[in-house]
Amino acid sequence: MKLYYFADPMCSWCYGFSPVVKKLKENYPNIDLQIISGGFAPGSKQKVTKEYKDFLEYHWRNVNLRSGQYFDHSMKFVNENFHYDTEPSSRALVVVQMFLPEKDFEFLSLMQKSFYVEGKDITNDEVLADLAEEIGVEKSVFLESFHSEEIKLKTAQGFQFSKQLRVQGFPTLLTLENGAVKVLTHGFQPYESLKNIVEESLKTMLIPESNSGQFCSDISCGC
């Protein structure tokens, strides 16, 4: 079974869902999981004002309560030049998928940890290049590809693919069967719940669609 995982490195619910996806990959190695950078807030000019920080902290606490994932609320990445633009980190994932496709989930997890736990600015190309180097992509090679028109176009195509399939929030897992979209889960699910859906899907290849969410609901980040 091929699953499409629509995620965004700067979506807090995707970070919360990361251990669940990791366990899914470990327990179902025959599932072909394709990660798509869906585009949570590409090109955003949103600065982290006091009000926006309060907004983020509220949702981060919810993610922590549901998933157990740790957040550093000091948000060391915040400075006068920082905008909550998710395009650079999404583009970085596309670069890694080009060079080391088998390590894309590892890199996604590394970006999430760097952002939410260590407070690194993953909108910064140098920070992203250092992270890519940690998993085996040479820094100069990464930067050249990262700034290429080809990778920018591929990243935008991922965003467009997300819209075409009417993915309205992250994380989302779905399959495509004869051109029909079958949603496995929209939003956060604990592993045992997801496992039951996967088991049923593997038997029947029919996945029940769930309801769409809104921007930063209690289980997902919308777009």
Question: What would you say this structure looks like, in words?
Answer:
- With 223 residues, this protein is of the alpha+beta class.
- It has 2 domains: 21-164, Cyclin A, domain 1 (Orthogonal Bundle), CATH 1.10.472.60; 166-223, no CATH class.
- Helix content is 48%, strand content 13%.
- It is built from 8 helices and 6 strands; from the N terminus they run E-H-E-H-H-H-H-H-H-E-E-E-H-E.
- The protein has helices spanning 12-27, 50-67, 87-99, 104-116, 125-134, 139-146, 149-164, 191-204; strands spanning 2-7, 32-37, 169-170, 172-177, 180-186, 221-222.
- The strands form 2 sheets. Strands 2-1-4-5 form a 4-stranded mixed sheet, sandwiched between helices. Strands 3-6 form a two-stranded antiparallel sheet.
- Helix 1 (12-27) links the parallel strand 1 (2-7) and strand 2 (32-37).
- Helix 3 (87-99) packs parallel to helix 5 (125-134) and helix 3 packs across helix 7.
- The radius of gyration is 17 Å and the shape is globular.
- The protein starts with a strand and ends with a strand.
- Residues 206-214 have low confidence and may be disordered.
- Pfam families: Thioredoxin_5.
- This is DSBA-like thioredoxin domain-containing protein.
- It comes from Chryseobacterium wanjuense.
